[in-house]
Amino acid sequence: MYLKVDSLEKRYGAFDPSVSNLSFSLAQGELLGLLGPSGCGKTTTLRMISGMVAATSGRILVGGHDVTGLPTYRRNMGVMFQSYALFPHMTVAENVAFGLEMRKHSKHEIAKRVESALAMVRLNGVGDRKPRQLSGGQQQRVALARALVFEPDILLLDEPLSNLDAKLRDDMRNEIREIQQRLRMTTIFVTHDQTEAMAICDRIVVMNKGRLEQIGTPHEIYETPATPMVADFVGRINRLKGTWRSDGAIDINGSMTIRASRPGARGAPVLVMVRPHRIGLVASGSAIPSAEHENVLAGTIRQVTYIGDTLQYSVEAAGARILVEKATTSAGDPFQSGAEVLLHWSEQDTLTFAADGER
Ligand SMILES: Nc1ncnc2c1ncn2[C@@H]1O[C@H](COP(=O)(O)OP(=O)(O)OP(=O)(O)O)[C@@H](O)[C@H]1O
Ligand SMILES: [Mg+2]
Question: Could you tell me which residue ranges the ABC transporter domain spans (predicted)?
Answer without folding.
Answer: 3-234
